[in-house]
UniProtKB/TrEMBL annotation:
Its EC number is 2.3.1.20. It comes from Amycolatopsis magusensis. Pfam families: WS_DGAT_C (PF06974), WS_DGAT_cat (PF03007). This is Diacylglycerol O-acyltransferase. GO terms for molecular function: acyltransferase activity.
Amino acid sequence: MHDRLSALDASFLFMEDPVTPMHVGGVAVFERPSAGFDYAEVLALIGQRLGYLPRYRQRVVTVPGNLARPVWVDDVDFDLNYHVRRSALPAPGTDDQLFDLVARLVSRPLALERPLWEVYFVEGLSDDRIALVTKTHQAVVDGVGTIELGQLILDESPAESEEFEDTWTPRRQPSRTQLVLDAVTETVQRPGELVNTARVAAQDAVATVGKVTEAISGVAATLRSVARPAPEGPLNAPVSGGRMYSVVRTRLEDFRKIRAEHGGTVNDVVLAVVTGALREWLLSRGAALTSDSTVRALVPLAVSDAETEYSSAGLIGNEVAAYLVDLPVGEPNAVLRLQHVGHAMTAHLDSGRSVAARTLLRVGGFAPATLHSLGARAANSFSGRFFNLVITNSPGPQEPRYAGPARMTEMFPVLPLAKNQALAIGVTSYLGGVYFGLNGDRKAVYDVDLLGGMIEEALEELKGADW
């Protein structure tokens, strides 16, 4: 039988609509080496690595009558040139032009009749830089069998381009009759599966959320612990088809100094900085904040388990727990905001299952892109009534990474928006920098650039804050 989508993966397909595509993106910026690095070399590099990721040559096929969840089948018409695309900015392209392009690219859903990923090779950037923009559907990346493509094409040292000869041979696509027979066979073996499939296919909200929350470690327990919905505000608004994407560049050393001065973790400082920025942003929108005002963030974190071992992909299984954290936007004192955030995170981390950043960085092959993807999966398993925005923070390598001979200089995550979730923030550290990627709805969060500037101001406020 063909590989059937899990209940979690299938739910991401069923939940998707034209204005809320369920893919995770990333932007990696590279220095073009003196010997050059062109589209053909990128095509060859990705083609060489696809042999390690069979899922990237498979597409989703539904079962007639929704008798069972869809299956993964080899794409007999797989076209690498379709998935790895060439784009260019009018030279010398600015960063603003690049991120405007990113916003347009990530707003477009992936074609469900093809393998669910795309890579854009963007040329024309100033200072002889190039960028790779990736889009990968959440149904693809599970952190164990399949990792994010960006994890596989980045190496610890530069590599010369090699000739690529594609010798892959797809398996024959199953007929409709075979799909039905396989579904009937599974139903006989597991009769309860038919009921579950029918519920998911009908997009029964209660059944889907319950099914999905049980599939991500820690989410169901967290959901049960929340007795009230998230505070109302401009972050929870109907999502349109357009996006605004902005980035913020900061230095890791600044976060470490604040941690040393005021305690907590680097992640606490990141969340406190975002809290300060959200406070100023809400005030700029005319929000009436009180001392008790909060914004609830869903913060996915990698966790470990006594029986979990490191997988060959270099991640700790697919163990990502989604924690709900009330960010104290009503608190005017920056240090007190940090203390509140640290206290809230400590309550979650006392479970003993959290994975420290230093542990993740010791795991061979770890890449932030995969953890951001897993974080987005955890976030979208939640009912949006319980949080206002998603914030993922993934530690990255502090040594250079390369795509072929090209040295990566910056990396920015792009998290998807769910229904009525108008903002998502991804944070990644790399090579001494901490990079924020802000994905906002074009109508509801049209001023995402303003929020990005406020992140920089909130960091400066904490750097100069006294006890």
